Amino acid sequence: MRCEVIAIGTELLLGIIVDSNSAWIGEQLALNGIDSYFQVKVGDNFARIEA
Question: Along the chain (51 residues), what's the average pLDDT of each consecutive run of 10 residues?
Fold first, then answer.
């Protein structure tokens, strides 16, 4: 099984907050046999989230 982790928050893009959650989620997915092919961050802009 494959997946993509999407973290939403402009503060992540600006470096105000470090995204440690995506790393943890990726680790948990791997432990359960799920390959995380991509990890992306997108701002709080609805149009960008929707795309």
Answer: 94 94 96 95 83 68
Closest by CA position to 12, among listed 35, 49, 29: 49
Query: Domain count of the chain?
Result: 1
Q: Token pair for residue 22?
A: 């995506």
Q: Residue 42, exposed/middle/buried by CB under 10 A (0-12, 13-18, 19+)?
A: middle
Q: Tokens 């929707």 sit at which residue?
A: 50
- Which residues span the domain enclosing 39? 2-50
Q: Is the pTM of this model over 0.90?
A: no
Compute the C-alpha angle 42/19/23, nearest 5°. 110
